[in-house]
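Input set for joint prediction.
Command: fold jointly, output tokens.
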Amino acid sequence: NAGVMQNPRHLVRRRGQEARLRCSPMKGHSHVYWYRQLPEEGLKFMVYLQKENIIDESGMPKERFSAEFPKEGPSILRIQQVVRGDSAAYFCASSQGSGRSGEQYFGPGTRLTVT
Amino acid sequence: QQQVKQSPQSLIVQKGGIPIINCAYENTAFDYFPWYQQFPGKGPALLIAIRPDVSEKKEGRFTISFNKSAKQFSLHIMDSQPGDSATYFCAASIGNQFYFGTGTSLTVIP
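tokens >
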């Protein structure tokens, strides 16, 4: 039973380019979360999605960042016109989304470096 | 506003010691409190979790103590080993909304 998968694991972009990060949730999970982790810092919530819906994007910067979780395929976190400050590890997590709080399982992360 | 406050930021113990990491929360609606372990270069991994209807949960060498009235919970690692050296995050959730602490970097010295 595969866990949460993220690709690429490492991504290097020049300033001004676009970064696309992909996340495939665990089998049977319909809820996806994206987090950002800066060096020596904790996990910062960015966005929470269900299939085809953004449920909570309160942690997402208002500009340049967007996320989607289409009916088919992985969830995508898109960062347009990247800047050096976007360099971080981006983690995706998934859960079953049952009525009570469910366990959240993390992927291995994508480490974005902006040069 | 930090929904979950975690301390200490870093912790160093000798092998065999019992490191304790503490977390505090404000929102009494939280109904699930997991702990995650993260090794360098890896994603956080669910370690142990508790719901507020119990005061303690033990899995192997890891124990969560939960104090509902004080709105605090803590992670204890018994007989700590160098392989336990990692960053530990507490979290609290309501439904599918998760809030994480800032992490504790644990070093266990051989």
